[in-house]
């Protein structure tokens, strides 16, 4: 597979509910330029957010032209990773609840405002693709990606290509069921993995534990206001040997291990890459997680797969958006 020339460039955009991250990359994935982040400011509406995205893209183009000494003709286009169900063929964000978007033609608007060809894909797909292209899953053939933050997103790569399913919703790993009578999820279902192991769920479980367990430093880390406990608070307390926090991290590992074991038995990947704030827990999470996977999945599937944290914190989405543009506009995965 031949890589695109290093003297051509693509801009990647990662649109989140909180922040927009943008950077330009050489088409062979070797260099980044103009990395920047700004608040999404969703209250400004779709027009305001898209205008901000376009301005950031144009700034990244100008920065790259100056730093790399190239003309605007060297830019092939812009790839965008966006939340919510999408119609990739038409380039439309169908629904993005955190942005209050409905039927927004994001791909075409980006082309109108930047003058560059554009590609659109799901943000979790892009994060997985970024880790596959130049990150922790590099060299793997079949990959499951998990992004763990406010919720749990996912991406599936089979034979080096993103798998989207029949209606662009493949990879909704957070909404696989691990307990049919379990916790209520924000999606309305019960027992979803996201309801147990997302950053939001980890913080909620910590607050629940404190309602009957007083011997913990967790309240001290938030000046006594337990409503301010986050998943990061739990990881910090676990690192200081707090028994409550350690148990929450171990339970989170077991929940994730159960979900991942199911995926191993279905897809038989050679790599599972986990990205997001949960990786801050380090081996305190990954050791029991891998143990749970070994306990539940078929041995040949476990033996063939490595389970690793992502290596592109903060940039996997934009890198993957660049990779998505390459795949959509060349008809083949990036080299």
Automatic annotation (TrEMBL):
SUPFAM superfamilies: Actin-like ATPase domain. It comes from the Bacteria. Pfam families: ROK. InterPro entries: ATPase_NBD, ROK, ROK_cs. Gene3D superfamilies: 3.30.420.40. PROSITE patterns: ROK (PS01125). Belongs to the ROK (NagC/XylR) family. This is ROK family protein. It comes from Gemmatimonas groenlandica.
